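pasting input
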Amino acid sequence: MSVVVPAAQSLPAPLTRMASPRRLLLRRMLRSRSFLIGGGIVVFVALVAIFAPGLAPFDPDRIGAGKRLAAPGAKFLLGTDEFGRDILSRVIFGARYTLYIGLVAVGIGLLCGVVIGATAAYAGGWFGGLLMRTIDLLYTFPDVLIALGLVAFLGPNLTNAMIAVGISAIPYYARVTYGVVLSERQKPYVDAAQVVGAGHLRVVVRHLMPNVLPPMIVVASLGFSAAVLSAAALSFLGLGAQPPTPEWGLMLSTGRNYITRDPWLVIGPGVAIFITVMAFNLFGDGVRDLLDPRQRQRTQ
Amino acid sequence: MSAGTPRPALILDGLRKEFPHRRSLFGKAEAPVRAVDDVSFFVQPGETLGLVGESGCGKSTLARLIMRMMAPTSGSVLVDGQRVDTLLPSEVLAYRRKVQMIFQDPYASLNPRIRAGDLIAEPLLIHGLAKGAARAARVRELADQVGLAASSLTRFPHEFSGGQRQRIAIARALAVSPRIVVADEPVSALDVSVRAQVLNLMADLQAERGLSYLFISHDIGTVAYLSQRVAVMYLGAIVEIGPARDVLRRPRHPYTRLLLEAVPVAHPRLKSRRREVLRGEVPSAANIRDACRFAPRCPMATERCHIEVPQPRTLDGDRLVACHFAEDTPDLPKGLAA
Amino acid sequence: MPVATDLLDIQDLTVTFGGGSSRVTALHGVSFDLRKGETLALVGESGSGKSLTALSIMGLLPPEGHVAGGRVMLGSEDLLTQSRRDLVRTRGSRVSMVFQEPMTSLNPVLTVGRQLTEGLEFHRGATRAAAKARALDLLKLVGLTQPERRMRQYPHQLSGGMRQRVMIAMALACEPDLIIADEPTTALDVSIQAQIIDLMLDIKERLGTAILLITHDLGVVAEMADRIAVLYAGHVIEIAESLTLFDTPRHPYTEGLLAAVPRLDVLVAGTTARVRLAELPGSVPSPADRTNGCPFTPRCPIATARCAAEMPPMTPLDAAHSVACWERAP
């Protein structure tokens, strides 16, 4: 019993003749330079981490692989450290720790932050207000300070450093989520969902989250580099990874005693941190450009 | 109210919504703003009541009150003789099956990350109306009724044109087989050449299903096309309500008349008529308590209008007008009734 | 029509967006002219290119867009080949623009008075005092109450209607020959719209300013236009005097558009039951849809095979009425 079938058949959707959204996204991915370069390096770092045992020429912990403080050369591409360990191998294995720290810290921060921020924004009222004022209070302290306090409380080791960095980032993720959810929940599609009878859980999970998470992915990829830096800083201060872990921040810390005479001890891990952090920032910028609805419209 | 015919599908009874005035840090509290002030009307089964008003007159707040998206300060909405604001949480879903809504902007009211078919299926799922293959069949049937090709149901909203998006929204609203549909400016975001499709679709669906529409719009031509009766709203209150043709041909409230005069002519031949322009602009705060709210802009206002609120009076049998001097309102100039 | 009375003459204006394989042609050789003191309405729906035409005239195309061909002659000067400096001068003094949303086109951190006097001082080299006196005159001209007070106010302190009056005052500041009004009343309520229409009609009558009115609203067109050019998907498809176009539209799109709008006068006058609105099937094409033929073909009730293959040229039916349609003007 159809009323306007003729219209249905003759309705040309102007956009359907164009590429599918997935193809469109792919095409734009290939065109975005920061996404390609950043993403490429991220993938490279990840591959290095995964295949570290195969790639590293030496056991990273083997003392006396060469003579102490050997300058970079054919055998030791990045030189050796004060115990004669191969710095290249240690940097390669360090990628594992770095990615691991980043993932765990961002995971903790994102998960708790999204839940807190989304709850506060969706619930609103005095409860939401109280939640966010508490978060704001925490936000006034620098993350590293919070992380320092937490590590001091939990005890200095790598696991606690990761947890501390993750917790210290919660206020940040909570605030960003709060803003995104607040603007999304004012959109008419949320009203429309409520009008057809969707309950709170359904509105949040089925309607809000798919629109909130993409921007959060951007935030998380930018947060990843911050987490890597914070963890390196904690290790540098002796509150994170403990010797002989080949963690980049720790390597910088021990290498700094030799910085004037044997600078390669800090150049290897330093450059590794720099490249990884930059790659994640580029990658995050690229993803943000891709998800920017204004840009999406322009390509249509 | 003259309702000799069957019981109205929707009744608003003295509905009022106040918003607390924003209080500055050291300022003293002001009286709350009355966005909707003592609104009463009914919509018969199978009837379209057009609600006309300019921005800020409270027509969208009215829609939100009916849809239970906010609670009234006082007064009530009744559907099937049952008060809507006192429904138990367990009764709300049943209410949603009776009353549905079509939103103004189909670009914003459809979740951009959900496929058209899933959007139409969602109310069926929520209300447990059809499962599995039956649900898919019902979605195709609904799509067919609103003129959407079944093959397009796997697409996302942004892949549709504005008119098609509004068809998705209509299918979604009709999925639960409501008897009352509140349509808040359903065509104003659409291209002119597409509006007629959606208006005709709405008219066809009404004829087929006996739907009642509360059709909210600022566009009087569209309202005139679809409505049997028209209500005119100004600053939160209904100033005139009656059969569409009578109200639009011979408005009795001075605001209705000036609003009709302001509507651009439909043909350049009619433009020579002298227009009496509605002076000034709608005051932003609706805080006129002891006077006619239109008095400050009304060309006919007398002292009485500034000290006494005009109560709605029955005129010409089935029309209600809230004006002390409704009988004196001059007729529209000839041009409009071409 | 003698050439001397032509104020603006647009020939074959073609505008493209993007480059390479994703290049999209948004305006396909748009041509029309505008005489002194005349109001020409460019009527079209989304994607018709009506706003792009205005932006091209003003040299305000977005960075991705560029003019691929044609001429925009203002008197004897081609605005498309003008230097940046000359263009700025033309823009301020000979042609000015009124936008749809005055809030976004007024500077929020400057007072109304400052924004008005700035243009006068820059383009006319007026002294502060002279510019201020002129600004007050302009605010009175556009019917703003309490002009002295308005001068000191910021845009957000004014209502939408008042802001649009200020925009019109700014547009009039340098006594331009031509005002381009892009959907000047679309964001306004009916009653305010009527006030602004009356104001623009009044200004045209008193100052003889030509108006290029860009709108999708046929009611506003009926109220204001002397002549009408109908745009569809980047093509001008019909041009005629206003009365002619409303009485005897020749292009099937124009016909369909006029029939698809509910007419209050007819509805109210009618004594019989509601007459079904005529529907134009389908929807407005996107500029990305490429066709060599007439873009209206998929929605056209009288289309033939030729329409799908070849775009009909604008063909005069008489001195003042042209249409681009194989069936109606072979």
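fyi Chain B has a mean pLDDT of 88.
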